[in-house]
Design a protein that fits this description.
Blueprint: E1 11-16, H1 20-31, E2 37-43, E3 47-49, H2 54-58, E4 68-70, H3 71-77, E5 81-84, E6 89-91, E7 96-98, E8 105-106, E9 109-112
Parallel strand pairs: 1-2, 1-9, 2-5
Antiparallel strand pairs: 3-4, 6-7, 7-8
Helix pairs in contact: 1-3
Length: 129
């Protein structure tokens, strides 16, 4: 199997979510690609919050864009694939990530880091921000 270039894909690394660890993995793959490894990110949200800055956002010090990481340019920098969809299950026996309404994604190595999901509906007044 070949990726979009001329390199033979030997291993499929699939990252579910855009948490901090995956942001660093993508940055490192962009700076130092690993031949033969195809990186695929499966993410429900392409704008992922940076939890350390959210209090500053609520206080009005940071904008939404300043305290979120946009996965699209980061995945492109890593020459990876971005699948904008939630992972709804895993077939660990056959090594597939299950997606709604799409074919499953095969993996050799899988990492899950979905980051934070603020429960804003439980915080009165947060909708204003």
């Amino acid at each position: 199997m070949k990726d979009d270039g001329d390199t033979m894909v030997i291993k499929d690394l699939v990252l579910i979510g855009g948490g901090h660890s995956h942001v660093y993995v993508l940055k490192n793959f962009g700076m130092k690609p690993v031949p033969g490894v195809r990186v695929t990110v499966v993410a429900r949200d392409v704008m992922t919050p940076y939890s350390g800055m959210l209090p500053g956002n609520v206080a009005g010090h940071y904008t939404y864009e300043q305290c979120h990481v946009d996965l699209r340019p980061l995945v492109a920098f890593a020459k990876g694939r971005l699948i904008h969809a939630p992972a709804i299950g895993l077939d660990t026996e056959n090594r597939y990530v299950i997606l709604p309404g799409r074919p499953p994604i095969k993996y050799d190595v899988l990492s899950i880091d979905i980051g934070i999901t603020p429960r804003t509906q439980e915080m009165p007044g947060v909708e204003a921000f």
